[in-house]
Amino acid sequence: MPVATTATARIPYRSTGTGPGLMLVHGTGPGAEINWGHLVDGFADRRTVLLPNYSGSDSAQDDGGELSVELLAGQIAAVVEHAGGGPVDLVGFSLGSVVAAAVAATRPELVRSLVLVAPWLHRDEYMRNLLTVWRRLGDLGDAEAFGRFGALTGFGRPFLAGLGAEGVDRLATNMSPTEGLLRQLDLDLRVDIRALAPRIRTRTLVVGATRDATVPVEHARAVHAAVPGSSYAEVDAGHVLVFERPEEFVELVRDFTGQD
């Protein structure tokens, strides 16, 4: 697996497929594969798909310091440069959308188009309380409660009901309170890109999830309003809409980035 380096980190990434670059930036969690692995084949027939694992993921190596949006944006930019210099179509989910927005605002030469999935400008009181509870479950060391809380807030009720008890139990094992993931949650609580969003001039699509209990859809609408000239779409799903509506999501991205 190729590795890009910055002053404080080594960022591994997977590259697959052929064609113009499409980079998928994961959200809070163990890494890119858990967010995007099931979607790669939907893009790799016509694109070189890049999946970086930034600091806090299971495979990244860094100095263990406090994370920031600027730090992670620098890591994503380093991967783009290491993979060939771009520009790429940049797709970010959740925390990854915040990071992708920062890359587009500060390194526009690296970004051909931008897709922001379930983004937010800064946390409101609802998000502050939700993320604080999740973070404190991590401090308690109760891995099962931590994972179940992530599943409960990350997915819409109809989707969870369709999985059944065994499916939900398996889903709850996807998130463990590792030191790296807790550092990412600390960053989630500090996110504020209100000054960066209006600087984005890249062609942008913002995607909100109508059943999102983690980052309520009003936040995506606010990002759309803040990014000049952006387009907007909503998907009837919970926060992790890339799992709940994968075909719809792939179609949205392929259409917007001109892949079809």
Structure in words:
The chain is of the alpha/beta class and 260 residues long. The chain has a single domain, classed as Alpha/Beta hydrolase fold, catalytic domain (Rossmann fold), CATH 3.40.50. It has 10 helices and 9 strands. Strands 1, 2, 3, 4, 5, 6, 7, 8 and 9 form a 9-stranded mixed β-sheet that branches. Helix 4 (125-140) packs antiparallel against helix 5. It is globular, with a radius of gyration of 17 Å.
The assigned structural class equals alpha/beta
CATH fold-type name: Rossmann fold
- Regions with pLDDT < 50 over 5+ consecutive residues? none
Q: What kind of sheet is the major sheet?
A: 9 strands, mixed
Global outline: globular
* Structural Rg: 17 Å
What characteristics describe this protein?
260 residues, Rossmann fold, 9 strands, 43% helix, 18% strand, globular
